[in-house]
């Protein structure tokens, strides 16, 4: 069985906090352990920050959409903005010696560290980021 | 929970007790303003007590790095105290754990600052 819910939000930090809170609730509902709930919530927060800050650039005329989908096997969260698009290949490696002491550029890196799968699609315009956490193992344990 | 930072002086070291979430927006601004203020007042030894910091996002990590480099640029030292497991893990993932001087005990941390 698949449950899917989606929200269209204003490009504000308040929306980011709402998205993070909802991600935490959905992750808990999907049977993920507390550590994994934190990881999912943080990854979603980072993706939402990217949508609001880098994608929509706080433009009050632009929205971003967050969809949460749970199946028996996984939790899939998709964040789509209306910005100018993002080329994932162009992202610098935050662990490279030259970048280690930079004050930014760690968001996508953390998302990838915390999720099982991450897909970034340039929609021209806009960016769609899909975050996947496998839940099958946890769901089985929870029974 | 909003971010709070309170300062105290211990043996010539500015100890900043922080609590809450260091995240994009208010939390990061509080940290930035606190460090800027301390540097402006001539403090060159700064110990950030993160014991009550419940959460840091990538923006907060960036703000910690910026604080570290800002203090160092002035010829000072910034150390971190009492990391929670989550913050500890984040600094390990981002390879910053070895960059920062991290202490678990305040007295030891104070003594570790150069004279």
Kindly name the structural category of chain B. alpha/beta
- Uncertain runs of chain B are none
Number of strands of chain A: 5
- Hey, roughly how much beta strand do the residues of chain B contain? 25-35%
Radius of gyration of chain B: 13 Å
Topology of chain B as a string of helices (H) and strands (E): EEHEHEHEH
Number of strands of chain B: 5
Give the DSSP E fraction of chain A (strand runs of 2 or more residues).
Answer: 25-35%
Share of helical residues of chain B? 40-55%
Mean pLDDT figure of chain B: 94
Characterize the largest beta sheet of chain A: strand count, sense, and whether it forms a barrel.
5 strands, antiparallel
Oligomer: heterodimer
Question: Strand sequence of the main sheet of chain A, in spatial order?
Answer: 1-2-3-5-4
- Element-by-element helix/strand order of chain A: EHHEEHEEH
Q: How far do the termini of chain A sit from each other?
A: 16 Å
Shape assignment of chain B: globular
Name the chain pair with the biggest interface and residue counts per chain.
A-B, 21 and 21 residues
Q: Return residue spans of chain A where pLDDT drops below 50 for at least 5 consecutive residues.
A: 138-143
Largest sheet of chain B: 5 strands, mixed
Describe what you observe in this structure.
The complex is a heterodimer of chains A (143) and B (115). Chain A is of the alpha+beta class and 143 residues long. Chain A is built from 4 helices and 5 strands; from the N terminus they run E-H-H-E-E-H-E-E-H. In chain A, helix 2 (34-55) runs antiparallel to helix 3 (107-114). The model of chain A is unreliable at 138-143 (pLDDT under 50). Chain B has helices at residues 26-40, 58-73, 85-93, 106-112; strands at residues 4-10, 13-22, 45-56, 77-81, 101-103. Helices cover 41% and strands 32% of the residues of chain B. Chain B is α/β, with parallel strands linked by helices. Chain A binds chain B through residues 13, 16, 38, 42, 45-46, 49, 53, 94-95, 100-107, 109-110, 113, and chain B through 23-25, 55, 57-59, 61-63, 65-66, 68-69, 86, 90, 93-96, 99.
């Amino acid at each position: 069985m698949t449950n899917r819910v989606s929200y269209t939000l204003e490009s504000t930090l308040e929306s980011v906090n709402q998205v993070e809170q909802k991600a935490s609730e959905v992750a808990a509902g999907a049977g993920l352990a507390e550590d994994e709930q934190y990881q999912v919530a943080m990854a979603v927060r980072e993706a939402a920050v990217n949508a609001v800050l880098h994608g929509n650039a706080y433009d009050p005329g632009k929205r971003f959409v967050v969809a949460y989908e749970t199946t028996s096997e996984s939790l899939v969260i998709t964040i789509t903005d209306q910005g100018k698009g993002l080329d994932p290949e162009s992202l610098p490696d935050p662990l490279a010696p030259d970048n280690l002491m930079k004050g930014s550029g760690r968001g996508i890196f953390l998302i990838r560290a915390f999720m099982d799968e991450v897909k970034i699609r340039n929609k021209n315009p806009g960016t769609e980021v899909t975050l996947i956490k496998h839940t099958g193992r946890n769901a089985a344990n929870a029974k | 929970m909003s971010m709070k930072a309170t300062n105290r002086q211990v043996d010539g070291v500015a100890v900043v007790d922080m609590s809450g979430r260091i995240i994009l927006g208010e939390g990061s601004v509080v940290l930035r303003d606190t460090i800027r203020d301390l540097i402006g007042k001539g403090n060159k030894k700064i110990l950030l007590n993160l014991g009550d910091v419940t959460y840091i996002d990538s923006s907060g990590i960036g703000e910690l790095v910026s604080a570290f480099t800002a203090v160092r640029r002035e010829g000072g030292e910034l150390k971190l105290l009492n990391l929670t497991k989550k913050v500890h893990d984040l600094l390990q993932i981002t390879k910053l754990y070895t960059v920062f001087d991290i202490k678990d005990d305040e007295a030891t941390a104070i003594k570790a600052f150069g004279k």
